[in-house]
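Re: [ENG-882] Designed sequences occasionally contain unexpected residues at chain ends

Forwarding the minimal case from QA. Structure tokens:
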């Protein structure tokens, strides 16, 4: 048995059948299980399927929409062929070998669906001038050669996001308080804040990509965007995997050139932006200081799981 064209929510399957009697085969029985589920759960009786019964079609057969397949999930699959008898019973073959496979990440098709949903609630934009990153004091004291280095993104957000566990970067924030226009004084990540002028990370030589849209069983929604200097390792990773955004006119994070040549920046008001910068950042380019607010751990998104029931930020494919 062979599987082809495995995506986040579908696959093609084919197998070798005996030539004799092949023209009398009327149905395929397909048994699919998540790999971690050790119970075989085949058929209760030989003629009462608990899984998929499909009419016989030329192989390979596309399997899509029969299950709510999740991306990045390991499954096992086995098949039987069957001939429906005049009395309604099935004459079935032996089970095939069991094949293991893993569904794929979201493609740009699914990410564009997420992007449209995120754009619908982004709201108006507000001006900002700095990116900032909060951590414990030791993080900045231990920074290698006084530089913050990219690390692999955790598994927070959409399960099918192609950046989780793969893209290397540094998380920054840029959200501001509506009444002050400044970064908030509270943070879930630590009482010390590195702050850097926005144009040092985001300028005409920076590409911007949409990475994810999710929530964590709360009314807050998060949008991840990726900033990658043109031609960098991170930029090469993102090309073809993530939807590219227009640098000056997208509704999440924009950079526009003014008449005097200076750059102005705006961020979406109604979502919490998480900005991933893909390259090392020298601490000498900004300042580190202690914030006066609280460390709100409940707002941390570290390895946070997306709410699969939210109709605002989920698409119909996987979770």
């Amino acid at each position: 048995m062979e599987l082809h064209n495995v995506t986040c929510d579908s696959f093609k399957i084919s197998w070798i059948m005996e030539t004799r009697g092949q023209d009398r085969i009327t149905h395929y029985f397909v048994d699919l299980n998540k790999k971690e589920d050790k119970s075989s759960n085949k058929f209760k009786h030989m003629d009462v399927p608990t899984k998929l019964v499909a009419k016989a079609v030329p192989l390979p057969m596309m399997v899509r929409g029969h299950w709510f397949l999740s991306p990045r999930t390991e499954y096992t699959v086995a098949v039987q062929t069957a001939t429906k008898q005049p009395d309604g019973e099935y004459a079935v073959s032996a089970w095939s070998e069991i094949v293991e496979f893993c569904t794929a990440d979201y493609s740009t098709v699914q990410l564009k669906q997420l992007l449209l949903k995120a754009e619908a609630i982004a709201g108006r934009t507000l001006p900002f001038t700095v990116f900032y990153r909060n951590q414990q004091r030791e993080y900045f004291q231990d920074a290698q050669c006084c530089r913050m280095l990219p690390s692999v993104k955790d598994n927070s957000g959409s399960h099918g996001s192609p950046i989780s566990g793969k893209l290397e970067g540094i998380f920054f924030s840029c959200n501001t308080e509506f009444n002050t226009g400044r970064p908030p004084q509270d943070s879930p990540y630590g009482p010390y804040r590195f702050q850097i002028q926005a144009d040092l990370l985001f300028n005409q030589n920076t590409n911007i990509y949409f990475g994810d849209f999710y929530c964590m069983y709360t009314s807050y929604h998060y949008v991840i965007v990726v900033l990658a200097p043109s031609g960098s390792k991170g930029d090469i990773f993102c090309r073809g995997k993530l939807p590219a955004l227009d640098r000056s006119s997208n509704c999440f994070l924009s950079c526009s050139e003014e008449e005097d040549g200076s750059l102005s920046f705006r961020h979406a008001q109604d979502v919490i932006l998480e900005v991933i910068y893909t390259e090392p950042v020298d601490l000498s380019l900004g300042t580190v200081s202690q914030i006066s607010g609280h460390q709100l751990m409940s707002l941390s998104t570290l390895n946070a799981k997306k709410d699969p029931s939210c109709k605002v930020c989920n698409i119909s494919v996987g979770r």
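QA comment: On inspection the terminal residues look reasonable. The chain has two domains: 2-103, 108-290. Proposing we downgrade this to a documentation issue.
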